[in-house]
């Protein structure tokens, strides 16, 4: 009697569907986590820029006995934040980073501020 060998030629449709479902579940978990990490990283870049602006203000004050306006200090360029200087006087200033583009999805942390005494708001974002 002759026996026939059955050769497996690849994946069955069920095996492919199971693999696709598993990949979908992994993507559904991984993508939001990745996006959150990207937002936090960009927020860190905004905070660093505010600290650099603060140092520029202190350097300006050492030379001019007053804090500088936006025209007097270096304002960094960013694809994700708009930086402003306000409430400038001889003794005070406020630096603000306002989120733009995709960074606006950083809920609760779309506006970061830093003043002359290093008071940071909102506190939960620093």
From TrEMBL:
One of its GO terms (cellular component) is type II protein secretion system complex. One of its GO terms (biological process) is protein secretion by the type II secretion system. Keywords: Membrane, Methylation, Transmembrane, Transmembrane helix. The keyword Transmembrane helix applies. It comes from the Bacteria. Coiled coil: none annotated. The chain crosses the membrane at residues 12-34. InterPro entries: Bac_GSPG_pilin, N_methyl_site, PilE-like, Pilin-like. This is Type IV pilin.
């Amino acid at each position: 009697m002759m026996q026939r060998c059955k050769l497996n030629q690849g994946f069955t449709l069920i095996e492919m569907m199971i693999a696709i479902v598993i990949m979908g579940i992994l993507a559904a978990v991984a993508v939001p986590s990745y996006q959150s990490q990207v937002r936090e990283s960009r927020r860190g870049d905004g905070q660093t820029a505010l600290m650099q602006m603060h140092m520029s203000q202190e350097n300006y004050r050492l030379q001019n006995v007053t804090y500088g306006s936006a025209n007097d200090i270096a304002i960094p360029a960013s694809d994700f934040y708009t930086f402003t200087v306000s409430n400038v006087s001889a003794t005070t200033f406020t630096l603000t980073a306002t989120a733009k583009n995709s960074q606006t999805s950083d809920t609760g942390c779309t506006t970061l501020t830093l003043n002359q005494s290093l008071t940071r708001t909102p506190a939960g974002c620093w």
